[in-house]
UniProtKB/TrEMBL annotation:
InterPro entries: MAPEG-like_dom_sf, Membr-assoc_MAPEG
Signal peptide (from-to): 1-24
Subcellular location: Membrane
Name this protein carries in UniProt: Membrane-associated proteins in eicosanoid and glutathione metabolism
Length: 148
């Protein structure tokens, strides 16, 4: 039986979820001559908005939104991993689901940060939907195993 690494995916996801915020702050700081008010980071937005070009502000907002989305999706991901393990799904199933979800989230975060045109933004939405489908499938498989 292969080792089950799926629980390791939880801290990996957490780090992945924090990266867009770290990059957003660094990106804004660089665009704003090194200025960033770490004592009031959420209140810094209006000041920065006036100090940087609109495209920089828009990318900053997209990166912050991708960070928020990752935090919002964390409970669903963690629950799916715990449900699958509790139900006794195979290591292969758990590792594949965790790995596929993380890979889709990497693509999603990259797309969120870099796609500025509405016409291409549907790629990001598709990646999000696919990542959620992986988790829904994992919940479904766990449920099937528990009622069998």
């Amino acid at each position: 039986m292969a080792p089950n690494y799926s629980l390791h995916a939880i801290p990996v996801y957490w780090i992945l979820a924090l990266l867009p915020h770290a990059y957003a702050v660094s990106y804004m700081k660089k665009a704003n001559n090194g200025k960033w008010n770490n004592a009031n980071p959420r209140g810094t937005g209006e000041t920065n908005k006036r100090a940087v070009p609109a495209a920089v502000q828009a990318k900053f907002e997209r990166m912050e939104a991708s960070h928020a989305n990752s935090m919002e999706n964390a409970p669903f991901f963690i629950g799916a991993i715990l449900a699958g393990n509790q139900a006794g799904l195979s290591s292969d199933t758990m590792n594949t689901a965790a790995g596929l979800f993380l890979a889709l989230r990497v693509l999603y975060l990259f797309a969120y940060a870099n796609i500025a045109r509405t016409r291409y933004s549907y790629v990001r939405s598709l990646l999000w939907a696919l990542s959620m489908a992986v988790l829904i499938r994992l919940y479904w498989a766990a449920g099937d195993k528990l009622i069998a």
